[in-house]
Each structure stands twice: as structure tokens, then as C-alpha cells.
């Protein structure tokens, strides 16, 4: 093969690989049920009404799809079953003009309906969703966090399996959070009890530092503080987990619905001072000075926004990190360790080996990217506060409401839309200045 023919062949091969990569990225995004222009109403019971995993799910979507225009509405009510959702559908779901309605029920249905009746009820709700020209999405119930592994005859497991069959028959997107979480939560339960004990002991020592035997308690806590893997509590109660448990729920649901895990990735040759590869991001102003490397990076999306109080969950469920593949690969580094700063803020000390293999920045807890994700979460919570007011007035309007109530509903509708706009604005990509400077110590 002549040289020019070889070059032509290589150019075509590289171009084809790039096109293939772009196709697979687009395909992964297209499988997720959220589309541009959607209004997604999240129907559920008290677990949805907690505004924890539902908010995390929503924040992920804003962070991952900043170029799309969409909105979410929480429609969770404590104690709800499929029939009670049907009863409130006209004033709590339909008035939003949804294009997507996800249904996350079963916890309260299990004591009332056999599995075949549950599916019959769900089929009726699917029909009602489709009657308002919305696309249904089915979500299984979460398990009960009581330490028990999956037992034969578990009604929620029967529901989860039957929903899978129904979703396949009706060609409806479905995510089963029950199956991956029931074993995970049961396996974690002994360590959760340790975590709760440690929290209680810390509180006891803080309140009574001179308590008899306090020195022994301090030694005990010091030993646990040095453990590489800290015990994690799912928080809350067995039916209503707190932030950590609900972060695992959100991650399981997103994974089940095939949410794209790639945020962006880039590869830099420090020796040459050049970009070797970039996907869903753009790098400029690459500079080397001695052993220091700097560049500006503009990403097309953001990592999974993780609440600070839920962060311990990342150590028990890999799906959380898999949903935040925000990587930086650097070859040709000369020093063992590097302090990494973003916009002048130190975010980590990373080894050159880890950078050479691809460092995932998706779980960073500090720096401007993490702060932007926190802002998204805060604004989602603020918006849902207005949604809650809207729902109360909507119910009154549906029962022969007064003109004042109708005017109030219209005003709240505008306020909710304004809140949507604030979230979209907060999620817009921003360019950041990265700097890698030789460091002395590694992160603990």
C-alpha cells in the first residue's frame, strides 16, 4: 500500500470510529424516555412525596441534558394505590398536560391487591395516561429495608416481575429498582446498624464528654474513623429511606431506564501539549510550564448531582459512579502526584498513574462543577415547593373553585414555569480552567 493510500485509509478509519462513537452516544441518549419538550409527571405514593429520589432523578436529567427543554412535576401522595391515583388524576396529573407519566406504586397496593389484580389496575391507569396523549413509564416499588433477603412469595417482587411482563407487552419503558436494591440493602443492613451506633456514640460523647468510660468510647470511635470503608446507613425508616437510600433508588431507576452514563471525556498528551481525544467536551489553551499542565475545558453536560448528605451511598452502589463518567486522561506526566485545581480551587490530588488510566471526576464533592450541581438540586427543591402549592389550589379549583382560586392557580402556574427556567439556566455548561501542578501528598 502506498503512503498516501495508507494515510487515506487511516483517515477513513478514524473518521468511521468517530462516527460510530457518536452514533452509540446518541443511541444511548435516545433509549432514555425523556425527550425534548416533555412535561414529565412523577406519580407515586409517600416515597415519591418525600421529594428525595424524585428530585435526584430530575436533577440528573437537567445536568445531563442541558440543551433540551423539559420539566418535571412531582405527584406523590402518602398512602396512594393505583385506584386512589385514578381518583385524583383529573386534578393532579392531567392539568399539567403531561407528555410522560411515570408510575411508582405498589408499597400500599400489596396489602390490598393480588398480583393479577394489581396488573389489571395498572393496565387501567396506563389507559388513562394514554387518554391524555402521554407516554407511560413504569417503575417498580423500592424494597423494604428490614435486613431480610428476598423471600419466596414476596408480593413486591411479584409486582416487579409482573410489571416487567406488562411493560414488554405494552412496549413501555420500565425500571425495576426492587430487584437490584433488595439484596444490596439486606447485605448492607449489619453495617447500617454499626453506622447508627457510631452516630449515637458521637452524639453521646458530645453531650457528656466526662461520661464514665468516655476514653474507651473515644478509642473505639477512632478505630472506626480509620476504616477505609465507612459503614453506611440508608437512613429513614424501612419503608421510607433517607437521602442515602433514596440516592441508590434514583441511580437504580436511571440505570434501569438506560440513562446515559457518559458526561464527557478527554485525553491530553502533556508531553506534546496537545489534545488526543475529546467526546462531548472541548479543550482549549493547553499550556505546559515545566511539570505543570493547564487548559480550559467546556463540557456539554454535568455529572450526576449528588446531595452532600447522600454522598456515602457512592461506596455501596457502583451505578452512581457509572452514571457520572466525567473523565480526564493525561499521558506523559513526569511527577508521581498532581494537585488538580478547577478555576483556582483545589479539588483533588491524583497520581500520574490514575491520570494516565483515566480519572473519573464525576464524584468530586468540591469545586465549581460540584457547586453547580448543588445549585441544580437546590432549585429543583425550590420549584417543587411551588408545585406543592399549585397542587393544593388545583384540587380546590376542581371542586367548583372560586374565581380567586382560579386566578391563584394561573399565577402559580407562571411561578412554576419561572422556576423551571431557573433550573435550566443553572444547568448551562460553563468553561472551566484546569491546572495540574506537581503535588506531594495523596488524598486521604
Quick check: average pLDDT? 91
CATH superfamily of the largest domain: SGNH hydrolase
Strand order of the largest sheet: 2-1-3-4-5
The radius of gyration computed from the alpha-carbon positions, rounded to a whole number of angstroms, is 25 Å
Alpha plus pi helix count = 13
Kindly report the CATH topology of the largest domain: Rossmann fold
Please mark out the parts with pLDDT under 50 across 5 or more consecutive residues, or reply none: 1-11, 13-29
**What is the H/E order?**
HEHHEHEHEHEHHHEEEEHEEEHEHHE
Sheet-strand content, in percent, reads 15-25%
Written description of the protein model:
The longest helix has 31 residues, at 368-398. Helix 3 packs across helix 9 (243-256), helix 5 (115-131) crosses helix 6 and helix 12 runs antiparallel to helix 13. The chain folds into two domains: 36-259, Rossmann fold (3-Layer(aba) Sandwich), CATH 3.40.50.1110; 261-444, no CATH class. The protein contains 13 helices and 14 strands. The protein has 444 residues and is an alpha/beta fold. It has helices at 3-31, 46-49, 53-64, 82-92, 115-131, 155-170, 178-207, 214-225, 243-256, 318-322, 352-357, 368-398, 403-426, and strands at 39-44, 71-76, 100-104, 135-139, 174-175, 262-269, 274-279, 281-289, 292-299, 325-331, 337-342, 345-351, 359-360, 431-438. The strands form three sheets. The chain has a five-stranded parallel sheet.
Amino acid at each position: 500500500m502506498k503512503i498516501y493510500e495508507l494515510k487515506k485509509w487511516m483517515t477513513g478509519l478514524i473518521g468511521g470510529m468517530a462516527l460510530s462513537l457518536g452514533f452509540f452516544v446518541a443511541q444511548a441518549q435516545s433509549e432514555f424516555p425523556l425527550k425534548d419538550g416533555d412535561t414529565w409527571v412523577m406519580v407515586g405514593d409517600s416515597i415519591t412525596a418525600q421529594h428525595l429520589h424524585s428530585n435526584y432523578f430530575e436533577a440528573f436529567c437537567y445536568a445531563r441534558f442541558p440543551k433540551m427543554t423539559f420539566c418535571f412535576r412531582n405527584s406523590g401522595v402518602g398512602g396512594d394505590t393505583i385506584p386512589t391515583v385514578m381518583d385524583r388524576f383529573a386534578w393532579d396529573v392531567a392539568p399539567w398536560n403531561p407528555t410522560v407519566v411515570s408510575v411508582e406504586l405498589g408499597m400500599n397496593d400489596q396489602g390490598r391487591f393480588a398480583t393479577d389484580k394489581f396488573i389489571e389496575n395498572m393496565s387501567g391507569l396506563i389507559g388513562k395516561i394514554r387518554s391524555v396523549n402521554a407516554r407511560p413509564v413504569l417503575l417498580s416499588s423500592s424494597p423494604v429495608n428490614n435486613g431480610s433477603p428476598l423471600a419466596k412469595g414476596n408480593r413486591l417482587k411479584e409486582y416487579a416481575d409482573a410489571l416487567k411482563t406488562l411493560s414488554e407487552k405494552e412496549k413501555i419503558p420500565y425500571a425495576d429498582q426492587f430487584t437490584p436494591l433488595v439484596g444490596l440493602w439486606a447485605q448492607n443492613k449489619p453495617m447500617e446498624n454499626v453506622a447508627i451506633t457510631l452516630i449515637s456514640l458521637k452524639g453521646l460523647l458530645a453531650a457528656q464528654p466526662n461520661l464514665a468510660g468516655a476514653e474507651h468510647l473515644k478509642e473505639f470511635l477512632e478505630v472506626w474513623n480509620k476504616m477505609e470503608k465507612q459503614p453506611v446507613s440508608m437512613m429513614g425508616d424501612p419503608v421510607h429511606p433517607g437521602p442515602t437510600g433514596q440516592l441508590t433508588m434514583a441511580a437504580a431507576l436511571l440505570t434501569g431506564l438506560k440513562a446515559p452514563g457518559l458526561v464527557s471525556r478527554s485525553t491530553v498528551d502533556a508531553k506534546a501539549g496537545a489534545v488526543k481525544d475529546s467526546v462531548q467536551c472541548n479543550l482549549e489553551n493547553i499550556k505546559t510550564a515545566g511539570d505543570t499542565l493547564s487548559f480550559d475545558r467546556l463540557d456539554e453536560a454535568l455529572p450526576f448531582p449528588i446531595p452532600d448528605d447522600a454522598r456515602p451511598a457512592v461506596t455501596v452502589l457502583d451505578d452512581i459512579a457509572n452514571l457520572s463518567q466525567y473523565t480526564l486522561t493525561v499521558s506523559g506526566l513526569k511527577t508521581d502526584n498532581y494537585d488538580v485545581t478547577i478555576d483556582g480551587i483545589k479539588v483533588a490530588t491524583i497520581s500520574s498513574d490514575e491520570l494516565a488510566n483515566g480519572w473519573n471526576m464525576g464524584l468530586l464533592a468540591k469545586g465549581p462543577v460540584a457547586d453547580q450541581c448543588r445549585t441544580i438540586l437546590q432549585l429543583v427543591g425550590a420549584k417543587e415547593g411551588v408545585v406543592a402549592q399549585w397542587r393544593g389550589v388545583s384540587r380546590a379549583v376542581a371542586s367548583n373553585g372560586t374565581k380567586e382560586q382560579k386566578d391563584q392557580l394561573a399565577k402559580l402556574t407562571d411561578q412554576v414555569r419561572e422556576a423551571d427556567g431557573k433550573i435550566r439556566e443553572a444547568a448551562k455548561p460553563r468553561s472551566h480552567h484546569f491546572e495540574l501542578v506537581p503535588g506531594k501528598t495523596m488524598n486521604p
